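Deliverable D5.2: sample structural annotation.
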Amino acid sequence: MNTSVKKITERRSAGNNVWLRFPNAKPHVTAGDRYFDYDALETEEAVGRAMYKELVDYSNEKTGDINIILLGGRGAQAMYRHIKSLAGQGKIDELLGRLNVFTQDALAPMRMDNGLSFVRDFERLLGDDFFQRIKSFTPMRTDTGNLEAALTGYVEKLNSLGGIDIFFLGLGPEAEAASHLCYIKPGCGAGFDDFAGIIPISSSILEHHITKFKAGGSEISAADEAECRAATHILTLGPAAILGAKRIVQSIVDAATAPAKIASFKRLIETKLSEDADELGRQTDENPGLLIRLHPDVRSYILPDLLG
């Protein structure tokens, strides 16, 4: 499907955060509380198979290309291993040939081949056969002197292809049992119509990022870690990208190595959402993980240990 490209003409600052949005884009957000459903599966492999089935089922529902947002860290590794095996056997060439693949966040500045970059981890987990067979791969560029221009080009390409079909998401822990999606941090001022942003990095983000990559088995040199610790910003998709996706598939499988997620998930599912739109905006800025509860088509897969 060919669509006209919307240029990002609006740029705004919220403190030290820069947010980009499409002109006249107003995601539909209905204020008010609603039930959040999830499936607790017994193993990480079962979660991975369920996530892959969501991709297959969606591909059977839609004709043409499928635009997906990859999830970094632990959440989707089992799915990636399964896809890597199938791709190596040539069993899913038709599906892979329809995929336009994008990343959802990145630490910057950093070499694209740094062992702590999501791109290098995706290459390791999904394998050469996957990347040779998909229709396109568009990462967020972190090796450029103009991060804002690179991010603008990234989201304009995503929009030109028709927007997001499946957004694979996790859940990151924050202080006071809050949480982040992508790297939309509490208090970063992201509004419902902000599609992408550039936010300053924090030491807690760096530690969480490095810890989850080490737990996931990434090969990381001392030079890679030093460069990662020197990163200054995070590129991230924003609330409008999440709310505008056709389907969200969430996975949370690492409570054993990130136990703070237990309290974050409890707060996520137990928070009463306001019926007032302005107050709802304040709630999601304080706890961005709540954004997932505003989407009408979410499939959430977790391991039982997340329930404490």
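Annotation notes: The chain has a mean pLDDT of 93. The longest strand covers residues 247-252.
The annotation will be released with the project's public dataset once the embargo ends.
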